[in-house]
Amino acid sequence: MRASKGDRLVQHGRVVGQHDQITEVVEVMGQEGNPPYRVRFPDGREAVMSPGPDCEVRHRDDLQQQ
């Protein structure tokens, strides 16, 4: 998994009824776009995250084309 600043991380809900959680990558702390990432939640909180298999990256360039 590789991400850049401005990309979105989508953590899919693991159980029925649990919503996806979308965060923005504000800093890439690993080498060459690899985790960990500092992310910002919609409410402004920030955290360091090493995404698991339930996450996907939505790249900034792909979001701008939509």
From TrEMBL:
It comes from the Bacteria. Residues 1-57 form the DUF1918 domain. Residues 33-66 are annotated as: Disordered. Gene3D superfamilies: Domain of unknown function DUF1918. SUPFAM superfamilies: Cell growth inhibitor/plasmid maintenance toxic component (SSF50118). Residues 55-66 have a biased composition (Basic and acidic residues). This is DUF1918 domain-containing protein.
